[in-house]
């Protein structure tokens, strides 16, 4: 592989980690559109572009999700009873959704991804937060929420924080605990999603030689460690920079990247 691609993946991982530390936002919204463009330039067949981008992004989230879980656990911010009850459904929803993704065409996945990211960007721009109006549901309710969170997370390659945190705060879980608990369920989402994309892409013709199913190993091995290295820098900058303004700029950037992904897959 040309060294320019190594530099591209290194830079992407570094930027994703910086944004995650600065704004507390997962990297799928950045990684998937940019990986899509990189894979198009590298000549990956059109029908595999979105699947490979989603699978690689899910796998790249695993190390950062592990680090985030441990950090929040050390601060006592994880509500482990909630994690125990919701994780089985999240695992099932995430894993099964990768089979749905495998059946969808690249353009269908791109439309779903872009639509979700535009909605998330609008929510960030408006700074909408659900008001706590109820208590946590029982086992059936948590399982239903877990299936939905896991399923959507697998289709857009996110750790679930943009869905889990609003759900938990709506259920009167204090925000620090909602964030910590969301970080804890982010790891099973990433693991189940990565495994599902590996299984569904295994043996598929036309994928790059260095791919495990729909996970492209060179991108994964460069992005993941550098995202972890730059995340602490982002966290330190969060105390010095106007995060509110940066969050709005980031929302616009997410929207632009999502629309750029649509343009890429419809014109490639």
TrEMBL record:
It is found in: Cell membrane; Membrane. It is a multi-pass membrane protein. Pfam families: TauE. Keywords: Cell membrane, Membrane, Transmembrane, Transmembrane helix. InterPro entries: TM_pro_TauE-like. The chain crosses the membrane at residues 6-39, 51-70, 82-102, 109-126, 146-171, 178-199, 211-233, 245-266. The keyword Transmembrane helix applies. Its main location: membrane. One of its GO terms (cellular component) is plasma membrane. This is Probable membrane transporter protein. It comes from Halomonas campaniensis.
């Amino acid at each position: 592989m040309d060294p320019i691609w190594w530099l591209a993946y290194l830079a992407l991982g570094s930027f994703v980690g910086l944004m995650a530390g600065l704004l507390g936002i997962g990297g799928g919204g950045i990684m998937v559109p940019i990986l899509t463009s990189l894979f198009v330039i590298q000549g990956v067949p059109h029908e595999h572009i979105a699947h490979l981008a989603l699978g690689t992004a899910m796998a790249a989230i695993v190390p950062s999700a592990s680090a985030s879980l441990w950090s929040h656990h050390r601060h006592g911010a994880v509500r482990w009873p909630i994690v125990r009850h919701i994780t089985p459904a999240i695992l099932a929803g995430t894993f099964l959704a990768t089979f749905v993704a495998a059946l969808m065409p690249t353009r269908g996945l791109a439309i779903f991804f872009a639509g979700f990211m535009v909605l998330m960007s609008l929510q960030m721009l408006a700074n909408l937060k659900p008001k706590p109006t109820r208590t946590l549901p029982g086992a059936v309710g948590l399982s239903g929420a877990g299936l939905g969170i896991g399923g959507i997370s697998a289709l857009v390659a996110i750790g679930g924080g943009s869905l889990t945190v609003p759900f938990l705060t709506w259920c009167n879980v204090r925000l620090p605990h909602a964030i910590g608990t969301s970080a804890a369920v982010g790891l099973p989402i990433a693991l189940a999603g990565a495994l599902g994309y590996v299984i569904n892409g295994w043996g598929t013709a036309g994928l790059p030689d260095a791919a495990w199913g729909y996970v492209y190993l060179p991108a994964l091995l460069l992005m993941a460690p550098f995202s972890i290295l730059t995340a602490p820098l982002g966290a330190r900058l969060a105390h010095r920079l106007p995060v509110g303004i940066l969050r709005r700029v980031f929302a616009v950037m997410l929207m632009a990247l999502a629309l750029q992904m649509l343009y890429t897959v419809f014109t490639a």
